[in-house]
């Protein structure tokens, strides 16, 4: 049985755990230490506050281990703040993992009040539209290298994939739709 980790330094890790518990045949665990990271086959980096998660990744020393695992091919999925942490380039200077060839703008839709929901089809992921919740979401400004754009909304990139790195600007853990989880588990 595969062990799926959810990085649990800050943010919506409990909601991701709840969603993962609905999927049969996997063992979801919280990851706060290097030992826990060593046990997982895949990792989700949740939404939250990317500056806080980035600092904690550094102070816990998890950052180096995590970068190594990702570069060795461990599948990783960043949602919202998690997407920001994966990006090689961020508009703000802040600690991040810098592993994925995407350039990201934080808080691109404005404040918390500008949070919104939409429905969008991502053919690679599901044959029905996916419910998407955006909360102080980032935008992917550009992709490079082998990164593929998976979805755009109103002309802005909201989901991308590079090899086994998946990045979504929205929060699937806040909806009942498990299609992005199932896609990530197949990577
Ligand atoms: N705006 C947050 C950041 O910059 C991300 C918001 C979220 O993860 N919902 O980290």
Your description of this structure?
By secondary structure, this protein is an alpha/beta fold. The protein contains six helices and twelve strands. Strands 2-1-3-4-12-11-10 form a seven-stranded mixed beta sheet. Strand 11 and strand 12 form a beta hairpin. The structure holds glutamine.
Observed structural traits:
globular, 7-stranded mixed β-sheet, single chain, 3-stranded mixed β-sheet, alpha/beta, 6 helices, 187 residues, binds glutamine
Question: What's the arrangement of secondary structure elements?
Answer:
Layout lengths: L1 E6 L5 H9 L4 E6 L2 H6 L2 E4 L4 H10 L2 H10 L4 E4 L1 H6 E4 L9 E6 L10 E5 L9 E5 L4 E5 L4 E6 L2 E7 L2 E4 L10 H8 L1
Parallel strand pairs: 1-2, 1-3, 3-4, 4-12, 5-6
Antiparallel strand pairs: 6-9, 7-8, 10-11, 11-12
The structure holds glutamine.
Glutamine binds next to helix 5.
Rounded to the nearest angstrom, the distance between the terminal CA atoms is: 15 Å
Strand content: 25-35%
In N-to-C order, the SSE pattern is EHEHEHHEHEEEEEEEEH
| Count of individual helical segments | 6
From the spread of the alpha carbons, the general shape counts as globular
Mean pLDDT: 96
Structural class: alpha/beta
Radius of gyration: 15 Å
The profile of the biggest β sheet is: 7 strands, mixed
What is the strand arrangement across the widest sheet? 2-1-3-4-12-11-10
Regions with little confidence, pLDDT below 50 for 5+ residues: none
Oligomeric state of shown chains: single chain
How many strands appear in the DSSP assignment? 12
Helix content: 25-40%
Q: Cofactors and ligands present?
A: glutamine
């Amino acid at each position: 049985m595969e062990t799926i980790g959810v990085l649990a330094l800050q943010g919506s890790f409990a909601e991701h755990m709840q969603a993962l518990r609905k999927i049969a045949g996997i063992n979801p665990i919280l990851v706060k230490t290097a030992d826990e990271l060593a046990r997982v086959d895949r990792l989700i980096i949740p939404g939250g506050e990317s500056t806080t998660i980035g600092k904690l990744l550094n102070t816990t020393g998890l950052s180096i281990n995590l970068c190594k695992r990702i570069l060795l091919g461990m599948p990783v999925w960043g949602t919202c703040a998690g997407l920001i942490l994966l990006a090689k380039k961020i508009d703000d200077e802040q600690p991040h993992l810098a592993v994925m060839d995407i350039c990201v703008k934080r808080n691109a839709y404005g404040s918390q009040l500008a949070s919104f929901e939409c429905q969008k089809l991502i053919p690679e992921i599901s044959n029905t539209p996916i419910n998407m919740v955006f909360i102080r979401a980032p935008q992917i400004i550009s992709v490079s290298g082998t990164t593929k754009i998976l979805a755009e909304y109103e002309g802005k990139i909201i989901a991308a994939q590079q090899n086994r790195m998946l990045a979504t600007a929205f929060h699937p853990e806040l909806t009942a739709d498990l299609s992005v989880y199932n896609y990530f588990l197949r990577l």
